[in-house]
Every structure is written in structure tokens, then in C-alpha cells.
Amino acid sequence: MEPRFPGEPLGLIAGGGRLPRIVAETAMARGFTPIVVRIADAIDDDWDGFVGGYFAWGRTGDAVRFMKASGVSRVVTCGTVSRRPDFRSILPSFRTLIMLPTAFRVVRGGDDRLLRNVAAFLKAEGLEPVAVQDVAPQLLAPHGPIAGRRPEAAEDKALFLALRVAQTLGSLDVGQAVVASQERVIALEAAEGTRDMLHRVADLKTRGRIGRGERLVLVKAVKPQQDERFDLPSIGVSTIREAESAGIGAIGVTAGKSLIIDYEALVAAAGEAEIAVVGLAGGDVGQTAAAPHHSDALGEGSS
Amino acid sequence: MEPRFPGEPLGLIAGGGRLPRIVAETAMARGFTPIVVRIADAIDDDWDGFVGGYFAWGRTGDAVRFMKASGVSRVVTCGTVSRRPDFRSILPSFRTLIMLPTAFRVVRGGDDRLLRNVAAFLKAEGLEPVAVQDVAPQLLAPHGPIAGRRPEAAEDKALFLALRVAQTLGSLDVGQAVVASQERVIALEAAEGTRDMLHRVADLKTRGRIGRGERLVLVKAVKPQQDERFDLPSIGVSTIREAESAGIGAIGVTAGKSLIIDYEALVAAAGEAEIAVVGLAGGDVGQTAAAPHHSDALGEGSS
After folding, report:
1. Which pLDDT value is given to residue B11?
2. Is this complex scored with an ipTM above 0.85?
3. N or C terminus of chain B: which is more exposed, having fewer CB within 10 Å?
């Protein structure tokens, strides 16, 4: 996606984590002027040198007005929203009051749906939502090996079991993440989110509920939905660390439909943790062999 | 199932909980002589007046020999096995050593698979496994209202969503339990077990991750499998209590393929907790709008 004119203001609704900063820097490099609306977890993040500010949930209306006043027509939304807005503490502006029913819906159901619903909300406000991969296509996961070592045979078996289950869950519009071994499904993500699910797996391991011979893998798969563009699963260094403490040896993401956050750091962390990270294609389900090995697979994600 | 001769010895491999005692008393009333092999959680249970004893995992061989010496040809296995055998503390007999590989496999994967695999193990030992419902068919859940109040419209919608998801999971041989609201799936059981899943839901509620308008329900569905006879989901008073503390208003089980443990006590607990308990048939999924509608506004979920 290119600027419509040099320095086109690009709205960036930024939650927490590394992703918003990466998107902002990519946008600048491509000739956009990011207008940064920090929300939720981004309250303490340092965005010096960027135009913008932090907006509490009660100031949703002000945030929209601020972006419009800054000449924004297109808006990208990303980042984590782990803190829930405390609506009791809100002194909403009149404009926000009108939006509150939407705001409540937006918050319902955790990060993924929140970001998806923000897109619908922006449309209703006359702003054009654009996806992270439109601004930063280089973040899309390639097909095949991504980082760390190659999966072993047992891990390949587990990856394809987890992918099959994850896609079935996705078709029911349930969570995106599954932990499996080569023998069975260990954990399924629903409303609790991937991090909580990985903590659960670590706990099961501690309690000896996972067999010594079981090789654990994590698969994050995209939901086959209209609005998947605004709901791509993502992995980053924190995913590697959480997977490591859960005893997970391999991570699979849907190629071309997942975001790799902070690639260099992820490669380093995966190497350190000796975790295999691979991009899986839907067609991989049913295969028994390892994911295809292209040495230059990294370029393909953006195609 | 009737005794082949008056006082036929019936092997009862008893884990913890109320179920084994109920099965033993039913068996006696029908003219069997229960031979009680207590395992796992049953270590401290009072079984005075019944023939049998407690057997540690290392004495699996002795337990089989004891049943055979008592004239047992048919064996029913039930009860909870939440404690994992500590194989380091085992001083196995020679006969048990031969079985240990099986024993390990049996323990893998938590209660359900354990009880299922015990059946296969008994067959291999020349004993005939019989299902709880063969001995005590009165425990099978009926179709329709079972206990407590009737489900409200929003809970009906949630029940059908949860049943649809639970059956899909079952077809993938994953867990049996699902928590849903009228709008979305909240939690999916895999290796952690129903109790841990309900604790998770309570935690999500505490953290405000569940909307005020969401009416939560729990569905335990049987897996469509050959050996489902030895793996029926069950609910009892403890299920009601755990559901209550998770903020769940209705519980659905698969009619004719789930066990109601301690019916009178469950009715009392469900009435007290104002929880609806219903028996669902597979065909029920077709009824009503089972599809989730995430974009529903607050409160409209029941429409």
C-alpha cells in the first residue's frame, strides 16, 4: 500500500507490544505520516517523535475527531489490549456516549475480536480501515521453515493434528490456537487467549498430566472468515518464551495469513530455545512429511 | 444386565467419588456380589461390608489375580482418578512388571482415556469389561428437563451452540466439555479436564472477560466412538457446585449417553443453585439458531 500523496497521514490505533512501532516505522519508510492513537496497553509506551497521544476508552470520540482533524482517511489498528476498560471510571464526552454501545461490543471477547470490531467501528465513522499486512506485508509468515531448528517427525505429526483441529475450530469461529502432541490434543484456546492457554499447558506438564514421550507443538491458525484480514494470528519473541516454558518444541502458523513480529529477535529466541517455527499451508493437513524446505521461503510471504 | 447365577461375583474397579458406591449397591440389589478393587482416589474411601481392598498401581497384577481368584469374570470400572501414580514409588511384582508398559499407556491422558484403556487392558487379561450403564441403567440421562429450572431462551441458544461444538470436538477425539454463551464459545476442554476448565471460566468472569449480557452454559457430550460405552460423560453434585461458581446457568448432557450421579442430591443442588439441567439429543442441534452471532448487541443474544 502506497501513500496517495507524499506524507499522507496514516491513522495508527496502537495497543501494546512491539507490533505498532514496527508498523509505524514501516509506514514512515514508505512515505506515510503516522498519526498515533495510543489505547489500552500502550498507555506507558514511549512514542516520542510521533504525532499523537493516549486516549482513554471514554475519549473514543475525541480520538476519532483527532485523526480526522489530522487529515487521516485510512487507519491501521494493531497491538495488544489485555487491560479491560473500566467503564465506571469514564466521564464520556457526548460524542463518546453515542458510541458506547459499540465500544462495549468492541471490548467483548478479548483482543482478536476487539481489533476486528474496531475496523467495523471505523468504517461507521467514515474512516477506511486497512490491515497491518497492507502497510507491512513483510511481516506475513512464509511457507516452510521460519526460525529455529527443523521439526522432528513426531512434531510434524503433532503440527498437522493441531492444524486440522485449529482449522475446525476456526470454522466454528472459536479460538485460533491449539496445543497438541503426536498422540492427542492437549489444549484448545477459546476466550482465555493464547498466553493463558500456554500457562495451562505448563501447569499440566508440572502436574505430570503430559507423557514423557509426548512432543508438544503450538499451532496458531487463521479463521476462515470474511474479516480475517483484521484478525491475523501473530507470533513474536514472547510467544517463543511462553512456548518454551510450556515445554513446546515446535510452533506452526498459517503461511501468508499470520504475522511474524520482530523477525530477527524471533529467530534469535527460537534458536536459543531450540524451538522449530514453521509456516503451514492448509494443504499441509494430511501430509505426513515435514513442511517443504525452501531456503528462500522468507520472500514468499509478501507475494 | 443380570447375574449368570445368584451372587455372581462382579469385579468393580473403583476410583474416587460417589459413582462406584452407587454401582456397587445397584449390583448387590440385582443379585451380584461386588468384588471391589479400590484404586487411585479410592484409597481413603470407606468400603466396609464389601469384599475387596486397595491396590497401588504397582500391584496391578495382584488386583487382576485377586479378582480371578474371587471368581470374577465380568468387571465394571468407574470413579475418579485425579492422582497420578507415582511410578518411582512402585516395587512392582514380576507379573506387574510385564504389564507396566500397558499401565503407563493407561495412565496417559487423564481419567477418560484411563478408564477406556482399562477396559482394553482387562480384555487382554481374559476378563470381560462391562459398562456402568449395563449394571446401573437408571443412571443414564433422560431427554429433556432433568433438574432445576427450565433454560431461558438465551441459554437454549447457548446450549445448542455448545452441543454443536462439543460434537465437533468429539469427532476429533478431543475433550467432551464446552462452555458457551448465547454469543460465543468461552472454554473448550482438552487434557485439563472439566473441573479445571470451569475454574478457568470463573477466572475469566472475575477478570471481566465475559460480558454482563452473556448467559453461560456447560455442555458435556459423548464422543461418537466405538468405545464410548466405557467413556460416558457424567455429572453430579460437584458439577453443579463448580458450574455455579463459574457463573453457569444451565448444564446440558447427551440424553441416554451420559450418567447422572446421585440424582436426588443433584436435583436438590440444581434447585438450590437455580441451575437448569437438561438432556440433549443430537437432533437438538438442528433446532433453533445454533450459529454464533458475535455482532449481536448486548442482550439481543437471546433473540
Report:
1. 96
2. no
3. C
